[in-house]
Specification:
heterodimer; A: alpha+beta; three-stranded antiparallel β-sheet; two-stranded antiparallel ribbon; 17% strand; B: 15 helices; 8 strands; 46% helix; 13% strand
């Protein structure tokens, strides 16, 4: 009997409509206004790669140990180094990172013994050409420069 | 295959010619790039043929050219809706090959993450399945709640979808500050939301009419096809690998296996909804006591398992997800084979769709909960 009444008075449909109506309230709006408001990425977010410099001296932290290149599943890191005859240590000359093939797994970051290579919170990585996706040492040290839109 | 539910005569109605209709691979309701060739007699489906492989990337072959640690990010890209579960299965398989076990703290965190992933996967299924059937509204609400889970993943491991959250032997990332609070908050927030979805759908006459007795697969047929997961449980078989062969410390948690009897699309919906409630139950227990201790087991720097083979399966959101690894003692797997749940479950499509109306095929594809990344690999 109760079922019949529910059916006749369209209770099941009205219940659903009531849910929809309740969710109309402005406090339930959760759309992100992306280019206008930049989202706050998590601290551990794995985004654009960066090659860190020493904060005081400005010299690169990278010791050209090649561990990141070995750890990378896609083999997209190429580390170029040169042996300094005076200090008898390897020094970084070139560093290329192909962001078009990167899947941001974070294995290179984990492998780095001196925290030189880091995946940062930058997430805007689109480019116009395949060549432009291959980042050299200078780009990696500076990081991407995303457009800030004014609204 | 002799398991068709409605065997039909070879000749069609009034000897009219059968119509072959191509559905997909660019059809929004095939949940990816699945192509289904439908043979129709008027409105009635008299046979289906699945064409798969549009998303084939050769993941199993890639595994043979990568070291064990390097391959872990690739498994996330198979079932990209439940990447954490894939990662767990792979890590457990390699750990079994290495004869080691993750420390207790790592195991509990793994349980929390996989249960969150199960909810996220079921939520996406609910939204898209309801959308296929014609209920647009749940999709928006479901995405809103899924976002909360994605935020937890992002805070924990730095990625939202293809997480690469676990490593062989344990975890890479220590639990971030506020994980317990986030998970508790999510559990408290989520159950009322789940009631809301049920209010929208469970009693709704259109939802019930569209789903009951559509795509029926009984227990016997499920076993013949090797169907696992919620589809099997909806047919009345109480089979859940978390209970049947507990892994990662699932034996410590109290939860039920929801089952239904009819094995139709509506029952699968109910089972998945119940499963989300059970996942919340597990989450609440797991988050209460995360033991202290190390998060990484004693894993050698170069993972070089002894020669041998191993098969490990876990209960992924879609069913039994198995990894079969053959090791020849080198740093790379000799052969890696994945038993993806949606691939096996898709085989039952023909059995379910035979004799159904063409309007129901979308509901039947949706109820299998397929992810094409996993089917094609």
């Amino acid at each position: 009997m109760r079922r019949l009444l529910r059916k006749i008075f369209l209770i099941d449909l009205l219940e659903g409509l009531w849910v929809t109506f309740r969710n109309q309230h402005p406090k339930h709006i959760c759309t992100e206004q992306y280019p206008a408001e930049r989202p706050q990425m998590a601290e551990r977010y794995r985004g654009a790669p960066r090659l860190n410099n020493h904060p005081e001296t400005g010299e690169t932290l990278c010791i050209a140990c090649n561990l990141c290149a070995v750890a990378c599943p896609e083999n997209l890191i190429v580390v170029g180094s040169e042996r300094n005859e005076q200090t008898r240590r390897k020094e970084l000359t070139t560093f290329t990172y192909d962001t078009s093939r990167c899947m941001f797994c974070g294995l290179c970051e984990d492998a780095c013994p001196v925290d030189a290579l880091e995946l940062t919170q930058d997430f805007e990585l689109a480019g116009f050409s395949r060549e432009g996706m291959i980042w050299d040492r200078q780009m990696l040290e500076e990081g991407p420069k995303p457009t800030r839109y004014k609204f | 295959m002799t398991a068709h539910s409605n065997p039909l005569p070879d000749s069609t109605f009034l000897d009219s010619s059968e119509l072959v209709l191509n559905m997909g691979p660019q059809h929004p309701s095939t949940h990816g790039v699945l192509r289904v060739i439908l043979k129709l007699d008027g409105e009635k489906i008299i046979g289906t043929d699945c064409v798969i492989g549009y998303l084939h990337r050769g993941v199993e072959k890639i595994a043979e050219n990568r070291t064990y640690a390097m391959f872990a990010p690739y498994v996330d890209r198979m079932d990209y809706v439940a990447a954490v579960s894939n990662g767990l299965g792979y890590c457990l398989a390699v750990e079994k090959l290495l004869h080691l076990e993750a420390p207790p703290r790592a195991q509990v965190v793994r349980v929390i993450m996989t249960e969150l992933q199960r909810i996220a996967s079921h939520l996406l299924w609910l939204g898209t399945h309801a959308l296929d059937v014609g209920a647009l509204t749940p999709l928006f609400y479901v995405m809103r709640e899924r976002e909360e889970i994605m935020k937890i993943f992002e805070d924990y491991c730095g990625a939202r979808l293809t997480t690469h959250a676990f490593r062989i032997g344990g975890l890479q990332y220590e639990v971030h500050e506020g994980l317990e609070r986030q998970v508790k908050q999510f559990c408290g927030m989520f159950l009322p939301k789940l009631d809301e979805y049920e209010e929208l759908l469970t009693q709704n006459r259109m939802w019930v009419a569209r789903l009951t007795n559509v795509g029926v697969l009984n227990a016997e047929q499920c076993k013949q096809y090797g169907v696992t997961g919620p589809m099997l449980r909806a047919a009345g078989v109480e089979w859940d690998l978390r209970k049947a062969q507990p892994y990662s410390g699932y034996e410590k948690y109290e939860f039920d296996i929801p089952t239904r009897q009819n094995g139709d699309t509506y029952d699968r919906y109910i089972v998945r909804m119940q499963e989300m409630r059970q996942s919340v139950r597990i989450l609440r227990q797991a988050v209460e006591d995360i033991p202290a201790g190390p998060i990484m087991g004693k894993v050698p720097k170069v993972i070089k398992p002894p020669a041998g083979e191993v098969y490990v399966s876990i209960e992924a959101p879609k069913g039994e997800l198995g990894y079969y690894i053959v090791s020849d003692g080198s740093t790379q797997p000799y052969r890696l084979r994945v038993r993806p749940p949606s691939y096996v479950n898709l085989q039952s499509l023909d059995c379910m769709a035979r004799g159904a109306l063409i309007a129901d095929i979308v509901a039947i594809i949706g109820t299998i909960d397929i992810v094409l990344g996993e089917i094609d690999r």
